[in-house]
From TrEMBL:
Keywords from the named record: Membrane, NADP, Oxidoreductase, Transmembrane, Transmembrane helix
Protein name as catalogued: 3-dehydrosphinganine reductase
Record-linked Pfam families: adh_short (PF00106)
A molecular function (GO) term: oxidoreductase activity
Taxonomic lineage from the root: Eukaryota, Fungi, Fungi incertae sedis, Chytridiomycota, Chytridiomycota incertae sedis
Amino acid sequence: MLTTVFAVIGFLSIALYVGPLLFQTIFFNVQNLKKKYNAQWALVTGGSSGIGLAMSETLASQGINVVVAALNDKAMESAKVSLPRKFPGIQFRFVSVNLGAHDPTVYMTPLIEATNDISVQLVFNNAGYILVGLFHLTSLEAIMSCLNCNNIAAVQITHHFTGRLVAESQKGAVFFTSSPGGFMASPMAPLYSTTKSFLTNFAVSIAAELTPNNIDVCVIHPSPTNTAFYNGAGNMSTLTTFQKLSGSPQAIVDAALRCIGRTVNVEHGWYTVGNRLLLKILDYTVMSDLMWVFVRGQGDYEKIRVGQLEKLGGKTVGSVTARGGVVASKAVKGQ
């Protein structure tokens, strides 16, 4: 009797996950967001490279004008040239901002000024990065910058633009780039899983609230994707392996455009699905204890620990805070 009960539970658990995925893949086509929302303008954070650039190009190809918000770097300079050249009939506004700034007005003021005279109906919260390093050996400044970029900026931006849409009785959509990394903890990059888990739950929570206002919310969890994200991997072998198996940013954009307004939580690719199925076999509690026991014995753990201590000159964690230096692998604000 118990065997039958557990078999039924196991079957339903997998079927109710895999079934909707197959349905989305077979029956959901890529939607034209200009037609769906009668949208004239979109905002894409991290829109100068990777998934963000692919999203900016796709929106422009559908006839939607785009506000590109990203760091003032080489990728942004390249986008300023390539996007208008590729889509001459589309308007672009480029806003150079650091979404990791501790003071939100540093990025919100330029964004508000750049969009005061237009109606932004589509908001794509895509910017984010990974900060590799042991928490106690990483400066608080670096930790807070990652938290600000990955979470706080998305909350600030979403609150401002959804508030405008509701006040103007405009329909629209808000999109978040999360990660399967948020399904479980990520020792040696603790802010990544934490911030991505927040994004997922935040998106699903506000989706229910905004539906009566004709505002759709969608959060996507891409499998490894070939973007500048991996510039922040340092010498972490797991991430280097994922980079070799990474897919196209356009595939992520297409998945998002198939699902927005049709479902809230989108899981795309082999790694995302594999992680979800693994957690149906190994409960999160068990997985947590396995990490607690085995991670410290991994080569990456020791390599990262030693590398951070060398940068500190062997000083203790108290010295890290005092110095305030960024003691972690190079981080790139973009996905």
